[in-house]
Amino acid sequence: MLLESDVRFLMRISLFLCLPMMLVACDKPNGDKQSDEAEQAIDDAPEGETIESDSGLVGRLDISQRGSAMIDTPFKDPDGKTVRLSDFIGKPVLVNIWATWCAPCVVEMPMLDQLAGREKERLKVLVVSQDIGGAEQVDPFFAKANFNELEAYTDQENGLSFGFGSGLMPTTVLYDASGKEVWRVIGAMDWDGARAAMLMEETLAER
Fold it and tell me: Which sequence spans correspond to the domains of the chain?
């Protein structure tokens, strides 16, 4: 598991990897042009509640896509088999897109692991890496982190990232048991916090 010192270090280096808004979200680390585009993407995102945790994680709640069907793009399960989000219909699904180089994404991961453990009867938590190195890049990260519940899904083609259309990571989307979007958070979130629990409870209570 990540140690507290690891989390503090990741939060410090996020200032260099991410946008000026501390721990909001990361764009791909390919230069100032993409950083400018990512900042513009935040400015252009639908207006919604800004959620900031005591630890400095910041995300924007977006309900503009409520009721939309799951996107159909393929990605890989931990065994390398092709899957789609629709394969998980039947239980609410929380889909988080992330990358190993995205510091706020990495900070979220232990919290998502704990959430997956607490709510395993009512919720499937999918964390899908957008690293272009795929399993070769992600598996060592998972081996070191030693998560209890999270599994290493990968999306080398970035199909989910393009499909969600936020242009930023982390982006997390909650779908209900029928596969309809409930809300999304663009940026980072305290998944152990009271606000996250409140946002999920109505959907999870339907189980």
Answer: 4-205
Is residue 39 within 8 Å of 23, Cβ to Cβ?
no
> What is the C-alpha to C-alpha distance for residues 109 and 169, in angstroms, rounded to an integer?
13
Number of C-alpha atoms within 13 angstroms, CB side, residue 115? 25
C-alpha–C-alpha distance, residues 68 and 62, integer Å:
13
- What's the 3-state SS for 59-101? EEEECCCCCCECCCCCEECCCCCEECHHHHCCCCEEEEEECCC
Which pTM does this prediction carry?
0.80
Q: Give pLDDT tens digits for 41-82.
A: 434 445 588 999 887 899 999 999 999 999 999 999 999 999
CB 11 within 8 A of CB 23: yes
Q: What is the pLDDT of residues 121-140, one digit of tens each?
A: 999 999 999 999 999 999 99
CATH topology of domain 4-205: Glutaredoxin (3.40.30)
Backbone Cα Rg of the chain: 16
CA distances to 97, 107, 174, 191, 192 from 57, in Å:
16, 9, 19, 10, 12
Tokens of 179: 């596969």
